[in-house]
Amino acid sequence: MSMFLDTAKIKVKAGNGGDGMVAFRREKYVPNGGPWGGDGGRGGNVIFVVDEGLRTLMDFRYNRHFKAQSGEKGMTKGMHGRGAEDLIVYVPQGTTVRDAETGKILTDLIENGQKFIVAHGGRGGRGNIRFATPKNPAPEISENGEPGQERELQLELKILADVGLVGFPSVGKSTLLSVITSAKPKIGAYHFTTIVPNLGMVRTQSGESFAVADLPGLIEGASQGVGLGTQFLRHIERTRVILHVIDMSASEGRNPYEDYLAINKELESYNLRLMERPQIIVANKMDMPDSAENLKTFKKKLAENYDEFDELPQIFPISSLTKQGLSMLLDATAELLAKTPEFLLYDESEMEEEAYYGFDENAPAFDISRDDDAAWVLSGDKLEKLFVMTNFDREEAVMKFARQLRGMGVDEALRARGAKDGDLVRIGNFEFEFVD
User: Fold this and answer.
1) DSSP H or E stretch at residue 211
2) Phi and psi (nearest 5°) for 387?
3) How far apart are the first and last CA of the chain?
4) What is the pLDDT of residues 253-267, one digit of tens each?
5) Which helix (DSSP H) or strand (DSSP E) does residue 284 occupy?
6) Which pTM does this prediction carry?
7) CB within 8 A of 256, min separation 6: which ones?
8) Residue 108: phi, psi to the nearest 5?
C-alpha cells in the first residue's frame, strides 16, 4: 500500500466560550454587595501550521476530527474563566485548505511556519456583573459562551517543486531523476513503476539549485480519470517549468511526436493554465539505435505544426543511462527558471471572501418556516446565536431573550404570517407558545 496521501477530508471544531456566572457579594460588612459573577473564557482556535518536515497528508488518514478545548466558566468575585489553549494542527508545505461545503479556498499554505486559523473559538459569555444598571443593580442574568466555529475541510497537497517531469510511462523520468538528484525512485521496465510523486534537489555545475518532481506517468485520457487519472496531475500546478520527457527510441512502438501531442492535450484538458508554463522537450534514450533518426523526424513535424510567430520549445537530446547531454539540459532549465515568474494558482472567485469567523451582517436576522406538525420554526444565524447564548435556567434571562426577539421583529413577522395565540413556535429543540 502506498504511504503517500495528497487529499483528505476532515472536520474541525473550535472551542466554545465559557459560560458567564451569576453571583453576588455576600461579605458580612458589605451591605447590598451587588453582582459579582465573572465572564467565561475564550474557546480555543483550531490553527494550521506548516511543518516542512511533513511530506504527505498521511496524518489525516485515520485522525479526521480535530476539536479544540472550550473556555472555563466565569467565577465568583468577578473573576474571568481561563481561555482555552489553541489546537495546533501541523500540515505539509503546499497544502491548500478548502471549505468542503462551499468549495471556496480558505488559504494556500506554502511557507514553513505559516499559520492560519481555520476555526475560531467562541467568546466567553458575560457574567451578571456586566448587566448591572441603575434600574437593575442586581441582575440575575448571564450569557452562555458563544459556540466555536465548526466546519468540514477538504485538504489538498500540491508538492512544492520548481520543475515537473511529465511524459508517458516508461519514458525514463524516474531514471532521469535518480541521475540528476540524490532521490531514489523506484525504477522498473514496466508501466506505472512510479505510483507516487518523487522529489529531488538538483545542483548545476554553475551553482544554481532547484527542486524537481517526477510525477507518475500520464496516459491518454488521464484528465478524465484514465490510468492514474487526475490523482497526481494537481502536483504539476505549482511547477514553473515542465520537462517533457519523450522516448525517442520509440522502443514500445509509439510515435514520439504523437506522444508529445497527447500529453500536452491531457495537461490542457486538466487545466488550461498548465500550458502557460514553459516547456523543455527532453529527447531521452538517445543511446538507442533509431533515436537519432526519430529525433530528426520529430523536429521536422514540430516545426511544421508550429505557428511561424510561436517560439519553438527547446529540445535537448540526452541519455539518462550514459549521462549524455545532462549538464546542458540542467543549465538551460536553471536559466529558464530564473526568468519565469510564479504562476497564480487561484483567482479571486475561488477564494473565500471572509477569512475570519463571524456572521454576515447583511444576512436576514431570522427566517420563518412551517413544520409538518404546523409549528412555526424560527431559524437564522443571528437568532440562533442569541438562543444558544441565553441561559434558560434564569427567568430574567428568558425575559431578556423574549424582548430581543420582539426587538428583532419576530412577533410582528409571525402575526403577518398568520400565527395565532397558542400556536407552537420552535427554535431548534426548544418550543414555546406564541402569545398574541
Assistant:
1) strand 209-214
2) -65, -50
3) 66
4) 889 999 999 888 888
5) strand 279-284
6) 0.82
7) 246, 247, 248, 250, 283, 294, 295, 297, 298
8) -120, 110
